Amino acid sequence: MAKKETPKYKRILLKLSGEALAGPQGFGVDPDQAELIAERVSEVARMGIQLAIVIGAGNLWRGRTGIERGMDRATADYMGMLGTVMNALALMDAIERGGVETRVQTAIEMRAVAEPYIRRKATRHLDLGRVVIFGAGTGNPYFSTDTAAALRAMEIDADVVIKATKVDGIYDSDPHKNPNAKRFTHLSYIEALNLRLTVMDSTAISLCMENDLPIIVLNFWQPAALKSALLGKAVGTLINEVS
């Protein structure tokens, strides 16, 4: 009988982009994509790992587009926050249909559809084996969902932030444009900041650095990538204190 592998992490924060829910068209919510994400999430739950999720809204609204047309930045950001709640509800529905109890908490109160964010209540849900999805970012404009993910991860005392992308880590240039791009298996926080990465904003990385919270950037769509990373195997790019 094969020996059961023990997860390296007890509690994680998974950061998903809004585009993860979009299908081939690149926008909206694709039920097939939601179900695929739910399968990955269910696999993590079956490993006994406590899982919280922050999801973006790029599939529904890009604040940058509005700002470029003269929209007020705060208004554009609030619209994005509402978009994340829509994505959180869609993801909750898919995960629960997969048999895993899930709760959505929002930084902007909308009690008819979700719980208000309360840290102690969120950790209680996690202790009970429920997946918790945090919507509406930090509740404040001028902060990205990457920063919201770092903040919530520290508030719930997560062991690691998993940044889910479509590439298998961080490269020194765009691997889709440069076939000779070099992939980093490990970076210090300072190195990641100096590289001015587009994969995660500097505020989020700085917040993790100040609180010694590791970040793993991986390809969420590779079937075994997330599970392997949670078992402590070398997957994607690890960002932490020691280089």
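That was protein one. Protein two is written in the same sequence-then-structure order:
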Amino acid sequence: MPPVFKRILLKLSGEALMGEQNYGIDTAKAESVARELKAVHELGVQVAIVVGGGNIFRGVSKSAGNMDRAAADYIGMLATVMNAVVLQDALEQLDVYTRVMSAIHIPQLAEPFIRRRAVRHLEKDRVVILAAGTGNPYFTTDSAAALRALELEAEVIFKATKVDGIYSADPMKDKSATRFERISYQEVLEKQLKVMDASAISLCMDNNLPIMVFNMNDSGNIIKAANGDTSIGTLVGAGDTATSAG
């Protein structure tokens, strides 16, 4: 059976490449992520990835100290480029053709992001890794994921996290927290659920772009999501009344 989605955008956090470490890049974890992505790619799904940089540097983190916010955000963008190159290497070692495209000019490592060129890479069955966010400070990689997904006409955003969906409260702190199977963009904003920042959610809502939130650490979840299995996480969409998982 063919996959439900032809073109997806995966929002991959920097922490997804950190493995069990407290900082930096675990190459074994990068290889594991690459194998999952290869399996999805082999289904015939066109894959674009927006990668974060939180495993190395986050502009709004304590590590930024009293730095100017714009300067700290630019450093965070450079961290995403590092992660993108690591992921590219992991994919190409598995014989998956890959292109890194950056929102900041860094030609020794990445092509500049040009929408039509990125679409052409996808049409040629190359995995496209999008680095440096939007290229602007004060915008998160969540906002970059929403923007790039719309520019590339992706059918869905896959938000890969460390939990199996969106909960009514932090499940690590509140044992009574319940997981939503489906929820509307408006409810995510009203309940201030921290799945993506408000700008990203609003952009998806305005353009009716669905978001699937699931646990990246559970093997096979990306393939299940590509095949339309919503039981693995939470689907954010238009007009969905919040429903809790059974």
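The chain has seven helices and eleven strands. Keep this in mind for the problem set.
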